[in-house]
Amino acid sequence: MTATLPATRSAGLVDPVRWPDVARVPKAPLRAAVAARLLCRVAARRGLRVELPGGRTLHPAPPGAPVLRLHRPGAFLQRVGEGGLIGFGEAYQAGDWDSPDLVALLTGLATAPETLVPAGAQWLRRFYVRRPPVEELSTAANARRNAHRHYDLSNDLFALFLDPTMTYSSAVFPTGPGGREPLGTRDALPAAQHRKIDRLLDLARVGPGTRLLEIGTGWGELALRAAARGAHVVSLTLSEEQLTLARRRIADAGQTDRAEVRLRDYRAAEGEFDAVVSVEMIEAVGRPFWPAYFATLDRVLAPGGRVALQAITMPHDRMLAASRTYTWILKYIFPGGLIPSLRAIEETAARHTRLRVVRADAYGPHYAETLRLWRERFTERSPQVAALGFDDVFRRTWELYLAYSEAGFRTGYLDVQQVLLTREAVTA
After folding, report:
1. Domains of the chain by range and CATH?
2. DSSP of 10-59, one letter per residue?
3. pLDDT tens-digit profile of 315-370?
């Protein structure tokens, strides 16, 4: 089926300095035509309802089908034709398309994403898939700049959608009958974050007198709970905003004698520790530096010590493909990173250190619920986001990021795991 879609209309006001590739609508008519054919195929195969200006639809769709609402079809197709999934994301940032249920739409697209492009058309990927840029690799020189782009946006921004614990990682909720379905509510979120932290500290056997290294401070909640157990905590961060707030929270809690936060790269970690804990930080390390990351864990860990990681993971074959691809998330949200597979964690640790994975507990559905609560709160507080100086493109960028991530966990494309590594066989 060949789609006949309206011509490009001019996009809304977009700051071309802040968002150059969102402000620019490419001119790629042949690729746009290919994108139009692909859109028809994907919509038909995934049961999507594509709505066009004027109330028309691209083709019949079943009742309750996820909706892709095109406001500027021409611009949408030009962007997707030139940039693939990056163009798809930039089209949303620009307001070229929308959806009344963004998560439902993205969930439909994230199911078996490798089948979105027909096998016979996979060769087209070479025209729009780029390698991650060298200047964003998380070297010791670049890592602080990468962290600054995300975590130093504004503590006030993160406080708008996180719960009072200021914890920016997956919670562990109570579960319903059968122990499978997470019961995620806003009121339950702080306790669910503490449950996650306590499970990780228990996994590392953190207690009175434990010398604990935390790689990736966040805003200090894990360090506070470890200090309250009587541990002596050194926590490392590359974010100046997080450093300031975490130190203040530790001081306000009267725990400065037990918890110290340092502005330092993980590669510069010093000392010997009974336990090392790192929550969703390995995703920022980047594949070329995983050996150095695990070598650091091994180097600072005392004999008999334990390493407890919380890591977002993806299937190994998808991880290998992603490691060679510059994605929308890398461009606009987390530069320099890569989500590992559990197999990659196991193999890297075994190849470069004395550490071995002895336990891994997965709970991806809990992350989907965590993200839903963050996304709903972020969306509700869009006026406060604007009051902090963030424009409409930023708001749409983060709405897409949170919804895209939630869809990834709902489909099983992404998972989250708490992983225990030791040098000796242990009973976890």
Report:
1. 20-129 (no CATH), 135-422 (3.40.50.150)
2. PP----TTT-HHHH-----HHHHHHHHHHHHHHHHHHT-EEE-GGG-BSS
3. 999 999 999 999 999 999 999 999 999 999 999 999 999 999 999 999 999 999 99
Minimum mean pLDDT among 3-12, 16-25, 118-127, 245-254: which range?
A: 3-12
Token pair of 84, please? 């693939």
- Under 8 Å between Cβ of 44 and 108: no
Residue-wise over 294-328: b if at least 16 C-beta within 10 A, else e?
bbbbbebbeeebbbbbbbbbbeeeebeebbebbbb
DSSP 263: E
Helix (H, G, I), strand (E, B) or coil at 98: strand
How would you classify the pairing of strands 211-215 and 232-237?
Answer: parallel
Residue 53 φ then ψ, to 5°: -55, 145
* Mean pLDDT of the residues in the chain: 92
Average pLDDT on 251-269 reads 98
